[in-house]
Amino acid sequence: MYLEYFKLMEQPFSITPDPRFLYMSARHREALAHLLYGLGESGGFVQLTGEVGTGKTTICRCLLEQVPENVDVAVVLNPKVTAQELLATICDELGIANPGDNASIKSLIDILNRYLLDAHARGRRTVLIIDEAQNLSADVLEQVRLLTNLETSTEKLLQIILIGQPELRDLLARADMRQLSQRITARYHLEPISREEADAYIRHRLQVCGSSQNLFSKRAVDRIHKLSGGIPRLINVLSDRALLGTYVEGRGMVDHKVVSKASREVLADSGNEKKTRTWLPLAGAGLVVLLLAGAAVYYQPWQRLMQPVAVSADKQSTAADKAPVDLSAAASVEAMVAAIEEVAPGSDDDQDAEPAPVSLSERMLAADSSWYRTAWHALFTRWQVVLPDTVKPDFCNYAREYGLTCIVGQGDWNTLRELDRPAVLTLTREDGARVPVFLQSMQGTMLEMDIGGELYRLETGQVGSYWFGDYAVFVLAPPGGRMFLKVGDRDADVAWLREQFEIAQGVRIPAADALLFDYPLQKQVLAFQRAHGLLPDGIVGKNTLIRLNTAIDRQDVPRLVSE
Fold this sequence. Notes:
Elements: H1 26-40, E1 45-50, H2 56-64, E2 71-76, H3 83-93, H4 105-121, E3 125-130, H5 138-147, E4 158-164, H6 167-172, H7 178-181, E5 184-190, H8 195-208, H9 218-228, H10 232-248, H11 256-266, H12 283-298, H13 301-305, H14 313-316, H15 318-321, E6 325-326, H16 333-341, H17 360-365, H18 370-382, H19 395-399, E7 404-410, H20 413-419, E8 423-428, E9 434-443, E10 446-451, E11 454-459, H21 460-464, E12 467-476, H22 492-505, H23 519-531, H24 542-552
Parallel strand pairs: 1-4, 1-5, 2-3, 3-4, 6-11
Antiparallel strand pairs: 7-12, 8-9, 8-12, 9-10, 10-11
């Protein structure tokens, strides 16, 4: 109903799991790392718990997309079954011929044991994932434990991953479950996401649906995070209803008051029948509001800000040719005044005199739609790539022609230091308008930034109140542009990756097939990740690729941090 009003291509806050909307917070990445660790172990249990709606199922889906080629996975989604039914379900998942509904537990275990021994002989490993494991009864849990007794003389044949709500922890903490609990080799409890992560989560889902605008005020995000407790599913429900309410009221941005109204509707106690749903009866009338308010909304400055238009190359190139205006605390006010008064009024030099430095907030008030292209033009220039005026504002797509891939993310100043790449940052004015600027260099807490074509020197503290972590950088990607490579992948990008690691590590990586991401290559990836303080998951993603570019010290890769 509100999609056209906010220029969205589809519903951004559907509670149906969709891999396109996957947002991996630091907690989700840690949880995934624990599950990936479980895939690499032989035998025992891995336990993942979390409140309803925290993203356990999403992580499980992500795990299934990263399963190595030599691993077979059986997934049990409905564990409210008997021990016999559970064994039959496992056999079905693994493609084992079922002996029939009347098969005994012993016959099912014998069949499963023969399958596991055969898989082991063929160099394959088997993993059992049980979702909603808090619903397992005590006798079924005991049968699950007994499955880990299936083994050879040297190793277990079955790895088991239990995923469930916090009640699973309580269940396994019981005295009669100590035998199973002692076999758990890795535990992780998925906590709700932080306020900053909630902001990034909301922005991410809006961007997937085609929005380049900030549709939620800072106070609205604060209220959503507080009311949802950081639970992604509740964030979706609240955000969806808040957008509907904002649409009905004919506003351009969700504020905290609308969020409060939304919470009374979607988070109300089931027994509170007297509360009226104020927006739903007005939704039809909202179509009229849309027609009346549409023109006014269209002409609001914050709405136009992220609609880039072409500007001349002369205007875009001025910042790099001028000395930066120093707005840092270290720049004396008296010195700046003296510099301005140095030119006598009425002299011939008046027209060339530099204007008095303004504050960052004042400078951002001058932002218009040309700033978007100006910031990206500066980024392309640092990578020695010409950005013609004729190129449409799909700059990430244009960058691929030069072997560059866009990384759009959320972080802090330490994130940017670690990435060590010039970046386009998105600042937010006090009125909610989003202002793109270019971060050219960073030395300690000092920044040099191209702000609307003018170069400024500022401190991180001055910028921090306007920057909520949104950034975009370029990374030198494999020839095919893949930014996610793992064991089992096979193509020319893997061959490129192998060559890059050999240069960075100074070693020869043996390979029967240079195009295959095999275990010797994964071993080098793990060693590299540990050496550079990265999550050692053996998967080559954006952070590993960026560190790899830096480790090779390529001269065509610009750096952000000045020594």
